[in-house]
Structures are given as structure tokens and as C-alpha cells.
Design brief:
The structure is a single chain. The protein is of the alpha/beta class. The chain is built from seven helices and nine strands; from the N terminus they run H-H-H-E-H-E-H-E-E-H-E-E-E-H-E-E. A seven-stranded mixed beta sheet has the order 3-2-1-4-5-9-8, with helices on both faces. It starts with a helix and ends with a strand.
Length: 264
């Protein structure tokens, strides 16, 4: 299947779930009426404070309904732009920004096709949980990241660790039993909906995920002239799927932060 066909199928699936997610997150979104509100957890907040967002121009790829983008603005960024494939997610992001009085730009687009007007515009490109699994060509994804960054700019990824996708999040009896392959040659195909907020299943549009390995992610970063600065792994869940693992004595990596810099 052509890349564009995968992207279009996934766009339809995200559009379909948008209303469900909006309903499930409505109370949390109201908190953005409070000055300086942020939904970022302590781990990524510490990393962002270390980087110091003050005066920086920030882009978030796969921003969904904009709650993290608004949080980045509230943390001191001079300007924030969120990009997402879903028409309805971007619509909700714009509504939330207006409701909260937080000035951010939101752009509906395929990440691969972000306009050249944004080239060399950003000091930081932020990528969060569950973003990279949607892209059939990671090298092309990070080519976009590289062109968006100013020389000396940084990409910061806070994502679900690929190892955890080997587990079945619904198997509470044997939660650490590996059920799925770490390496895949074809995308995984689903049509049971994308409602990870309310955890409801429904017959939805077919969507495709590509579950890259850590080495595929790192090599895609490096192949685009980005210099890795740090890579840290964590045992806490950021996916809303594996929280039950926190009580297990045996710890597996559930999240990671990777940072890389574009050569000046």
C-alpha cells in the first residue's frame, strides 16, 4: 500500500474517535482556564525546564487536541505550533486555545507534507506518546523534523517504549507474558476503534500501526543529520494502557526520552 493510503486511513480513524475523546477529556480541558496549567508529567517537565523554553519557538508533531501544545506555551515558550492529521482534533485544539485564552497556532496536515514556510523555524520539535507508531517511513518523518528545526535546534521525544508493545494490555493474569513480536515486517491492522481514553471498543475505520524498534527510531534520527544528546528509559507508563504493570516486581521499560540536536 502507498504511504498516502496508510496516512489517509489513519486520518479517518482519528477523525472517527475525536468526539469520544473530547467527551472523555472535557473536565481536564476546563483546567486550562487556570493560568499556567500544564498536563505534562514530572519527568518531561523536568527535561523541558532543563532545556528552558523561555523565548523559544516550539512545534509539536501529532499534537492531537492541543493540550500538550498549550502546556508548552504555558511553560514559557514564546510561540507554539501544533500539527496533526485529524481535522476534528485540530478543530478541538483551536476551540480549546480560544476558550483558554492561550495563543497557539494549530495546523491540520500530514506531517510528511508540512508546508515549507515552517522550514528552519523552530528551536524545539516535541514528539509525545504514541506518535511514531503511525508513520510507515520514519526516515522521512525525521527528515521533516530536521527541516523544521533551526540550526542548533533540538528534537525531544517522550514516547512509549517499543518493548511494552510485546505485551497484551488486556491480560491482567499474565501481564508480563510476551505475546507479540518486537520485529514486524508488515503493519499491524486494527478496526476496533482508537478510544484509549474511555477504553470503549467499537467497529471503526481500519487503521495501521508500524511499531518501530528502538534501533529504527535512533537510526532514522541519525540518518537525517541529527546528533543524539541523550537517551533515557523509564519504568512508568505514559500510554494509558499499562498502568497495571506498576505493581509488578519485575520492571520492564515502558517509556523513554530521546533528545537530538540539528548541527549548527
Amino acid at each position: 500500500m502507498e504511504i498516502k493510503n496508510y496516512i489517509e486511513a489513519n486520518r479517518r480513524s482519528w477523525n472517527q474517535v475525536a468526539a469520544r475523546h473530547h467527551k472523555g477529556k472535557e473536565e481536564r480541558k476546563q483546567l486550562f482556564k487556570n493560568p499556567g496549567h500544564s498536563i505534562m508529567d514530572a519527568t518531561i517537565t523536568a527535561k523541558l525546564q532543563e532545556y528552558n523554553l523561555t523565548g523559544k519557538r516550539v512545534a509539536q508533531l501529532c499534537c492531537n487536541d492541543g493540550t500538550e501544545t498549550l502546556s508548552l506555551k504555558n511553560m514559557g515558550a514564546a510561540a507554539c505550533t501544533g500539527f496533526d492529521i485529524s481535522d476534528y482534533a485540530i478543530e478541538e485544539a483551536r476551540k480549546l486555545a480560544e476558550l483558554s485564552g492561550i495563543e497557539c497556532e494549530f495546523v491540520q496536515t500530514d506531517v510528511y507534507e508540512i508546508s515549507e514556510q515552517y522550514n528552519a523555524t523552530f528551536d524545539l520539535v516535541y514528539i509525545s506518546a504514541g506518535s511514531l507508531i503511525w508513520f510507515p517511513d520514519l526516515a522521512l518523518f525525521f527528515k521533516t523534523v530536521a527541516r523544521l528545526l533551526k540550526p542548533g535546534g533540538m528534537v525531544l521525544i517522550y514516547d512509549i517504549h517499543p518493548v511494552v508493545f510485546m505485551l497484551d494490555e488486556n491480560d491482567k493474569e499474565h501481564p508480563l507474558e510476551m505475546k507479540f513480536s518486537y520485529f514486524i515486517d508488515e503493519p499491524r491492522v486494527y478496526n476496533d476503534g482508537l478510544d484509549y481514553i474511555n477504553k470503549e471498543t467499537y467497529e471503526g475505520e481500519t487503521y495501521y500501526v508500524f511499531d518501530p524498534t528502538i534501533s529504527q527510531i535512533i537510526n532514522s534520527v541519525l540518518s537525517n543529520g541529527l546528533i543524539m544528546r541523550s537517551f533515557d528509559e523509564y519504568a512508568h507508563d505514559i500510554s494509558a494502557l499499562y498502568d497495571h504493570l506498576q505493581h509488578q516486581e519485575t520492571k520492564v521499560p515502558q517509556s523513554y526520552i530521546l533528545s537530538a540536536v540539528k548541527q549548527a
